Each structure stands twice: as structure tokens, then as C-alpha cells.
Amino acid sequence: MKTQLKKGTLDMCVLAILAGRDSYAYEIVAQLADGLDMSEGTIYPLMRRLQNEKWVSTYLVESESGPPRKYYKLEPSGRAQLAQMRRDWQTFANEVNKILGVAA
């Protein structure tokens, strides 16, 4: 069950991280690794998909310790999508909590 929940919320979590500030893939993985048990192998296909959706864009930043890093930036369409995902998540969580008998 946790795997399916993770799949369903990963886009929203990544967009939420990028809403706070631009970031590179390894940094995003580090933020998600503990709670969602995410690995680097998962992030790159996800980031390509978010780019294809035009929710994020990229730019390169020189690194002091190696090649330039690709940073991801949340686009206005990504902010709108995140807002919709948050509304959908809250509605879904409220419905599940009702069924489970948990006060909202």
C-alpha cells in the first residue's frame, strides 16, 4: 500500500519542494529519501516527465566540485498544478479520514 501511495503523491511532493526554491535532483532525493524511501533512479524519469508537462524547467549552475549541476525551477503551470494537487489531496484525505473515523 505504501508503494502505491508513494507513486500517487511523488509528483506533488517534488513540486512542493520546488515551490520553496530551485533545486537539483540529488538535493530533491535527499529531502524525500527518509519519508518516501526514494532513490536517485526514480528521480530522473520523474523530472523528465515534469519537464515534458512544462511544470518545471532547467538551467545549469557551475559547481565548485565537478561538472555543472542541472537545477529545476517550478514554472507557473507547475504552481497551478501543485495548487490543484493540494486541493485534490485534501479532499481525498478528508474522505478517507471520514471512512476511518478520524477527525479532520
Structural features, described:
The protein has 104 residues and is α+β, with helices and mostly antiparallel strands. It has one domain (2-100): Orthogonal Bundle (Arc Repressor Mutant, subunit A), CATH 1.10.10.10. The chain is built from four helices and three strands. It has helices at residues 2-20, 25-36, 40-52, 76-100; strands at 23-24, 56-63, 66-74. Strands 1-3-2 form a three-stranded antiparallel β-sheet. Strand 2 (56-63) and strand 3 form a beta hairpin. It starts with a helix and ends with a helix.
Strand content: 15-25%
The major β-sheet equals: 3 strands, antiparallel
Q: State the helix count.
A: 4
State the helicity in percent bands.
55-70%
| Derived structural class | alpha+beta
What name goes with the CATH superfamily?
Winged helix-like DNA-binding domain superfamily/Winged helix DNA-binding domain
CATH class wording: Mainly Alpha
Which topology does CATH recognise? Arc Repressor Mutant, subunit A
Write down the secondary-structure element order: HEHHEEH
> What sort of overall outline do the alpha carbons produce when their principal axes are compared?
elongated
**CA-to-CA gap between the ends?**
22 Å
Whole-number count of domains = 1
